[in-house]
Amino acid sequence: MQRILVTGGAGYIGSITSRLLFNAGYTPIIFDSFANGNEWAIKDFEIIKGDLRNISDISAAISQTKPDAVIHFAALKAAGESMEVPEDYYENNVGGSINLFKAMTEHDVKKIVFSSTAAVYGTPAVFEVHEEYPLKPDNAYGHSKLMVEQTLEWFAKLGKIDSVRLRYFNVAGASPDGSLGEAGKKVLNLIPILMEVAVAKREKFVMYGDDFETPDGTCIRDYIHVMDLAKAHLVALKKLSEFEGTEYYNVGVGKGYSVQEVVAAVKRVSDVDFKVEIGPRRVGDPAAYFADNSKISNELGWFPEFTLEDIVNHAWAWEKGGKLNHS
């Protein structure tokens, strides 16, 4: 039974992936600072409280647990915030990752799945984004993730660490059984914001622009269910067991939904006709982009199973049920 150290494992994606790991026969070991994570989400697993910025914390954790591989989620992830406090993003995302890689090499742990992001592409000039699209991040968050990807390329070339880098698109939803979902301290993404509007935690939803060159005038993005994303980490672990080097994959559904379509889905599922206000476009917002996911589908046999309707249904059930039990 493989032991997997999950950094940031108490967070939204990390906790759900840890549960899937356990169900698949792995032993997840959670390493988290709990700055944004929740202990209740991973209470059934071994937990080590630590901060990647302190190399002694992660070195001791790896020495103690002797994992077969690492899944590395721990990071700051708000693109807007990264432009206000870039020093925090480089310290956490880059510095913390370097400490992790150093501890791994010291203790002969050679396999890692890295949580990267579609933000490494910046603002794409095409609708469908494939992995060889130029990497031109336009915020400090995306750049910090790209720096870690580039570091992993060198560790692979030097024969020190083998890696799979997963470039996430827009993650949303909750576990279908209602037990786990997004419960972070900051609500920044579209679907969780809409959930808060639907339960009257917010007065209204502001839609940033309705005059884009799209069928309904609103931005189109690729929304992937968190369970599909979690499953991508399992197939990435299998890939790691079979090869040496580094690989990278987009993880998205391969099609886009407009903001208006998402709003309509939330209104339909919640049966709440909440107020929507049209605001100005945000600087740099592209009209549309979504993942070309053919590489991960063809090479690893991964395919998304859940629809936008599933995402909204599960997110709504979480908002009205499980989340309330932990608020």
TrEMBL record:
Reported cofactor(s): NAD(+)
Matching Gene3D superfamilies: NAD(P)-binding Rossmann-like Domain, UDP-galactose 4-epimerase, domain 1
NAD-dependent epimerase/dehydratase domain span: 4-252
Keyword Zinc: no
Subunit structure, interactors included: Homodimer.
Documented EC number(s): 5.1.3.2
CDD domains: UDP_G4E_1_SDR_e
UniProt keyword annotation of Isomerase present: yes
A UniProt-annotated Pfam family: Epimerase
Similarity comment: family membership: Belongs to the NAD(P)-dependent epimerase/dehydratase family.
Key words, A-Z: Carbohydrate metabolism, Isomerase, NAD
UniProt organism field: candidate division WWE3 bacterium CG22_combo_CG10-13_8_21_14_all_39_12
Molecular function terms, GO-annotated: UDP-glucose 4-epimerase activity
Protein name: UDP-glucose 4-epimerase
